[in-house]
Each structure stands twice: as structure tokens, then as C-alpha cells.
């Protein structure tokens, strides 16, 4: 049972519909009572008073507060004055013509809709008492049904309205929760999208820009050391650094616009891009070779763009780790396409490390490289395998599943 002082209101279209039904009920009950009175008592002295009171009551009733969403609520004082006028007109009308007692039925709902619960319950009790008295006055003898009937009617009407109000409140709560959930979901999706984009940019920067800047730094330092002893060789290092800078600029423009890597833009596919990468990464300290394994599996098929881009970035990241951490002289990129997956192996003859001790996070032994590779493969449903031991080099194997080809 509601215990606060707010009206037991049903909002929106339901309120307007209920108000219309109650107004129609009022007109039917008042009209039938008036017809009954005029047919039986039109020649009595009280007839003018009954007609005047019925007209005044009807006018005041239809001047009451409107129902529905957007209707301006009345102040408690104004409501009290309005209901006081209703009772002041209806009570003497019932005393003069008891058949008008049933007009209390639409007044029940009006009280429940506009008054605070306690005031509405008290008013309904008063109205019910008047209805019982009117029915007993019309009856030639006492009948218990004339007492129980109006009481049952008022109790049922009140319970029905409270049920409707609670259903409307539950529906409004559900709608509010749904709207809030949708907003929270949209905010979560935006946050996830932001984090995914940050992760993408972090991986792109590590695999391209950071790798290129690292190479430029090494070349420029070498040029600085050789500038006086061997100017020609020093200028060669500077020219190579300039070339890397141009490539980095092109990569930055492309991944900002979410395009394929520069090495894939030539149209030769992943194999051609790997050869270009190997040529660019090869130098005095590191020799990079590429092997495309097509034995027994036919020519390399056209791979999805996302797979090509991811594997090329993985190769770039792996070579960056080789150059910065392995101390290797040779690295081999092996691309193998099976019926249901494509595998890229990056092997080096460097110092190696304990693969079992390699941490998962970005703050581990090899910076962002390995976590970035794992993240790329996770997006494609692939897996990463690292085989290494101290003094025996390292093999990084990235496998990406493909749709099975029909043979």
C-alpha cells in the first residue's frame, strides 16, 4: 500500500483514457438518475432544486483538473476547494434525490487520481457512507446488500485503481532502467572503442614509427662516428636514415586513415611486402631473408586484407625485437599457407632467452612487441608460439586460421 502523500496517478494515455471513461460514466449515472427523478417527482417542490444542483455539480465536475502527461497539476488548496465544492453540491443532491448517490462512482476515481492517498481514502469512505444512506432511503425495508454492495464496490474500485497505478509505476521503472542501461551500454561501447583505437595506434606506432626511429637513431649515430674517418660511408648512413624517415611518414599517414601498410599498397600481396621489408631491414649488422613455403600446398592464395596487414605488422614487430634485443646477424621470415591456416615464422640466430620467463604485459623483457603481436592475433583468432633458449636463437611463430579451401 502506498504511504506517501503523492496522488495515486496513472500517467500518459492511460490517464486520459481513464478520465474519459469516468466522465462518460458520470454522464450516464447522472442522466439516468435525472430521468428517474423527473419521471417520478417532477411535480414536487424539490424538483427545481434537484435540477439546479445537478447542473451546478456537472459544471463544477467538468471544470476539474485535467488528466494526462503535460497537464498542469493543481495546488493542494485548489484541489481541496474544488472537492469541497463537489461534496457541497453532491451531498444535498443525494439527500433530495437518493438515486443520485451512484454518481459517487466516478468521484471515487477522481479522488484517487488527484488527491493524496490518505485524503482520497477518507473521501471515498464519506462518499460510500452517503451512497449506503441513499440506498437505504430508497428501500422500503433494511437490506444488508444495500450496505455491503456499496462498500464492496468502493473497495474494489480503489483496489483496481491502486493495481493500475502500481503497474504503471513498474512499467515506468522498467522503461527508465532500459533507457539507463542503453545509455550505459553506449558509453561502454564508446570506451571500448576508444581503448581499441588506442591499442591499435600503440601497436602501429611500435611496429612502424618506433621501429623506424630506432633504425634512424642507430644509422645517425654510426654516421656521426664515421663522419671524419669515412665521410662517404657516413653520408650513406644519412641517406638510409632519410629513406626510413620518408617511409615512416608514409606509414603514419596511412595508419591515421586506417589504411593498409605502405608495403602492401603496391598490390603484390603479403609475400611481396615481406620481401620489401626484408630488403629495408637488411644491413651491415643484420641480414634478413624471406622464404615462402608453397611446397605441396599450391601457390599462395589471396589472403584477407586484415590478415595480410596483421602478419606484416607482426613481422615488423618481431624484426624490431631481433634488431634491438637479440644481437643476431641473420633473421629468416618464413610464410607458410596450409589448408586452414597461414603461419608466419620469424627465426633469428641471436642470443636467445628463456621463453618460459617471458612476461605477458607490456612492461616485460621485450617492451610492447610481444603483447602487441598477441593482441593482433587475438583479434583474428590466431595463436602465438615462441621457442627460444639462451644462446640458441629464437623462433616466433604466428598462426592465423583461414576458411578451409575446397580441394
UniProtKB/TrEMBL annotation:
PANTHER family named among the record's database cross-references: NITRATE/NITRITE SENSOR PROTEIN NARX-RELATED, SENSORY TRANSDUCTION HISTIDINE KINASE
The organism of origin for this protein: Streptomyces coryli
Alphabetical list of InterPro entries matching this protein: HATPase_C_sf, HATPase_dom, His_kinase_dom, Sensor_HK_TwoCompSys, Sig_transdc_His_kin-like_C, Sig_transdc_His_kin_sub3_dim/P, Sig_transdc_His_kinase_ChrS
SUPFAM superfamilies assigned to the protein according to its UniProt record, in alphabetical order: ATPase domain of HSP90 chaperone/DNA topoisomerase II/histidine kinase (SSF55874)
Enzyme nomenclature, EC number: 2.7.13.3
Gene Ontology CC annotation, any one: cytoplasm
Residue spans crossing the bilayer: 17-39, 46-64, 79-112, 119-138, 144-164
Pfam families according to UniProt: HATPase_c, HisKA_3
Keyword Transmembrane annotated: yes
UniProt entry keywords in alphabetical sequence: 4Fe-4S, Cytoplasm, Iron, Iron-sulfur, Kinase, Membrane, Metal-binding, Transferase, Transmembrane, Transmembrane helix, Two-component regulatory system
Cofactor: [4Fe-4S] cluster
GO molecular function, one term: metal ion binding
Record protein name field: Oxygen sensor histidine kinase NreB
Annotated compartments: Cytoplasm
Domain (Histidine kinase) ranges: 311-404
Amino acid at each position: 500500500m502506498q504511504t506517501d502523500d503523492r496522488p495515486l496517478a496513472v500517467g500518459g494515455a492511460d490517464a486520459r483514457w481513464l478520465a474519459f471513461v469516468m466522465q462518460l460514466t458520470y454522464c450516464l449515472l447522472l442522466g439516468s438518475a435525472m430521468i428517474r427523478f423527473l419521471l417520478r417527482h417532477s411535480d414536487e417542490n424539490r424538483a427545481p432544486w434537484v435540477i439546479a444542483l445537478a447542473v451546478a455539480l456537472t459544471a463544477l465536475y467538468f471544470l476539474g483538473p485535467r488528466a494526462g502527461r503535460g497537464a498542469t497539476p493543481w495546488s493542494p488548496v485548489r484541489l481541496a476547494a474544488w472537492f469541497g465544492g463537489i461534496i457541497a453540491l453532491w451531498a444535498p443532491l443525494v439527500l433530495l434525490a437518493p438515486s443520485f448517490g451512484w454518481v459517487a462512482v466516478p468521484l471515487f476515481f477522481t479522488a484517487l487520481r488527484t488527491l493524496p492517498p490518505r485524503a482520497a481514502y477518507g473521501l471515498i469512505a464519506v462518499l460510500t457512507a452517503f451512497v449506503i444512506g441513499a440506498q437505504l432511503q430508497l428501500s422500503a425495508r433494511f437490506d444488508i446488500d444495500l450496505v455491503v454492495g456499496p462498500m464492496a464496490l468502493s473497495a474494489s474500485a480503489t483496489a483496481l485503481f491502486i493495481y493500475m497505478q502500481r503497474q504503471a509505476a513498474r512499467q515506468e521503472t522498467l522503461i527508465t532502467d532500459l533507457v539507463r542501461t542503453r545509455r550505459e551500454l553506449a558509453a561502454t561501447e564508446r570506451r571500448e572503442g576508444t581503448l581499441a583505437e588506442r591499442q591499435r595506434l600503440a601497436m602501429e606506432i611500435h611496429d612502424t614509427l618506433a621501429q623506424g626511429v630506432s633504425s634512424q637513431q642507430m644509422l645517425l649515430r654510426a654516421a656521426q662516428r664515421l663522419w671524419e674517418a669515412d665521410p662517404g660511408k657516413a653520408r650513406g648512413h644519412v641517406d638510409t636514415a632519410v629513406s626510413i624517415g620518408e617511409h615512416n611518414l608514409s606509414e603514419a599517414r596511412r595508419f591515421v586513415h586506417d589504411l593498409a601498410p605502405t608495403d602492401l599498397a603496391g598490390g603484390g600481396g603479403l609475400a611481396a611486402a615481406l620481401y620489401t621489408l626484408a630488403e629495408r631491414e637488411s644491413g651491415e649488422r643484420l641480414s634478413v631473408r624471406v622464404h615462402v613455403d608453397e611446397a605441396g600446398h599450391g601457390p599462395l592464395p589471396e589472403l584477407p586484407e586484415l590478415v595480410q596487414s596483421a602478419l606484416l605488422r607482426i613481422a615488423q614487430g618481431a624484426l624490431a625485437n631481433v634488431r634491438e634485443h637479440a644481437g643476431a646477424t641473420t633473421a629468416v621470415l618464413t610464410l607458410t599457407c596450409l589448408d586452414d591456416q597461414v603461419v608466419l615464422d620469424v627465426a633469428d640466430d641471436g642470443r636467445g632467452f628463456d621463453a618460459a620467463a617471458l612476461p605477458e604485459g607490456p612492461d616485460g623483457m621485450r617492451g610492447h612487441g610481444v603483447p602487441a603481436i598477441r593482441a593482433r592475433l587475438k583479434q583474428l583468432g590466431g595463436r602465438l608460439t615462441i621457442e627460444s633458449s639462451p644462446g640458441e636463437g629464437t623462433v616466433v611463430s604466428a598462426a592465423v586460421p583461414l576458411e578451409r579451401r575446397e580441394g
